[in-house]
Amino acid sequence: MKRPDYRPFVPAAGQSRIAGATPRAHTQARLQNPRAKELFGGWAQLAKAPFTGVTTDGRVVPELFSLQATDAPTSEMMAAATALLGSVSPAQRAAMSFPVESDLWRGWQNTELYVEDYGLRLDEASERVRDAAMNVLRASLSAKGYETSRDVMRLNQFLGDLVGGPAVLGEWSYTFCLFGEPSMSGPWGWQLFGHHLTLSCFVLGRQMVLTPAFLGAEPTYADVGPFAGIELFEDEERAGLALMRSLSPAQQRQAIVAHSMVGGDLPPGRRHFADNLHLGGAHQDNRIVPYEGLQGSALSSLQRRALVDLIALYIAPVPAGPQAARMEEIERHLADTHFCWIGGHDEASVFYYRIQSPVVMIEFDHHIGVFLTNAEPAKFHVHTIVRTPNGNDYGIDLLRLHYAQSPHHR
User: What are phi and psi of 143, to 5 degrees?
Assistant: First the structure.
């Protein structure tokens, strides 16, 4: 698959969307924009609603999740989190630490705007503290998941250098939060979020949940400088396209929601000025997303295998034990898993696809430019997100079950 060229869309000198020399100055200036006000105002309204979870009709499907040991690397995660707590100042500890039930789990956002007055901001921390925070990620994720997350952060720096905003779009322009007390048996977790990256990790005994997980990049590769050679989302793009092209014409007709990503036969209101075609982005914790497209029960055995392999790419950041348990959970619902598509499906096409079942929702979207200037979706700007529908994003359903089944919480 030919790598798309982003270079014609690098803004000319003086045309960058960077509006200030520091993250706070840039944020203050950008928040005067009506679109930014609309986005953050809408998010503030959504945040007022109690958590339900992503559903297909507003009703949570019950008894989908259960408490079970899945060999999460809890000992290593606890040691790394404890070491981080030992490396920060009292003020930093207070800023980053919250109860496990805190609504701030839901406060993440994936813009570059530094609006938060809480959390451990990594570009304001020492190298020692940053390393300690990264050790929490390293202990919690698979090796591939850790490297992919770091590559997202590195490509953010690459973008900052491209558009003249290295202080705004930096490798460390991210906020880290700790929820609960690190424990081998009790509930706790952590979250890292910022531009193009959100990881939400809930831990309970030897079990963990790693959603919502948002990963993106603009551009999706670095071709010069210290990060040259990094390239992301090629597998997710290629495997999604291969599955779509494996479908018969009749199956494709069922899968395709629209042939156009902008205008044309795209349903009115389907494209959002910030999320583009994503439905499960920031602050969409309670979104109603009806099933669309082709159901897993209508796939051949080879197509089902291809669908499972595609899903596995998005579950790859989870460490081995929980990853196996998560894939088993997803495969139990494979017949009730839906695959839908927007856009073309030849080698040059840009597209969106969604995989959705009672226990997982995955979205892949080629985006228009934000800091680059392409006015149409392009292959060099990708957003992906993974959610756990029906109430278990942030491990909230597991936490509910824990409180219901633990004698000291009754």
Answer: -60, -40
